[in-house]
Amino acid sequence: MRYFVLLALVVTLSACGKRSAAPTVVSSSYPFATGPMFQACLKADRKAANRQLCGCVQAVANKHLSSRDQARAAKFFEEPQLAQDARQNGSRSFWATYKKFAGDAERVCRGA
Description:
The chain is about 65% helix and about 5% strand. It is mostly helical.
């Protein structure tokens, strides 16, 4: 559970920035990209966060989230309460998209 919460936060932070057309692959196992969620993930200074995990989260974010949604989600790393507020009071379409992204990021980036 703790890993999932950390991964969800990392994924959320990597939402800041532009979407890249194609992620750069660092290893054959995990996709990799840089962008706002990648930067937010690294800046969050979480114990499990590392370059490979944050890059994987960004690559998944690029597939699911618009630049605007990435910017919104990246703020969740800095202020986790914003994620709770978005879930309870925000746009249903944003939250549905975010949940899909978080689930895919957890599946794709597990072990990164």
